[in-house]
């Protein structure tokens, strides 16, 4: 005699009390981030959640800046997500960085293109990868630095976007060396003028208004 189908009543189904909040936060995160591949992004989201790692979630909805047929291009918001996930280490493993890139549904050809700008084997200094990402967003050195300041700053959105001058000058030199049209003497002269401005305030910080005052076309 075949066994009857198992029947469940409402009292037999246990729903973890934290489940509704987990799903609510997940839904809000998906709406803010607008992933191109929801399944891929969800795998990365719950994997990070289970480990207690920073989540692949944007602070807010943003319009894409990459000129692609579909919305899978790199944006400042996605770079900021990667910064939250990777900045706790000076160097990041390329395999781990590639997986985080993939979880954000970004094109792998763009990832490879960035690494070709400064080839490395197993790991890369995070601030350098971030700088390369900013250069992919910006059409010039100054616009790249603008993205960098807005990602790294602790100032509120729309504020002066201040970052330590030491960080600014390190990245500026790094990106300048990749452009053969920018003489090293010009780079050093530009940074020296900026440092005079920073030193006059004695706080060691530089904001967008500072370096755009001395803005030069590059």
TrEMBL record:
Predominantly, its location class is other
What subcellular compartments does it reside in? Cell projection, Cilium, Flagellum
InterPro entries documented for this protein: ROP_DD
Keywords (alphabetical) are: Cell projection, Cilium, Flagellum
Q: Which GO terms describe its biological process?
A: flagellated sperm motility; sperm capacitation
Molecular function GO labels: identical protein binding
Q: Which GO terms describe its cellular component?
A: motile cilium; nucleoplasm; radial spoke
Entry annotated with the keyword Transcription? no
Work out whether the entry's keyword set contains tRNA-binding.
Answer: no
**Family listed:** Belongs to the ropporin family.
The protein's matches in PANTHER family, at most eight in alphabetical order, are given as: ROPPORIN-1-LIKE PROTEIN (PTHR14952)
Q: What is the official name of this protein in its record?
A: Ropporin-1-like protein
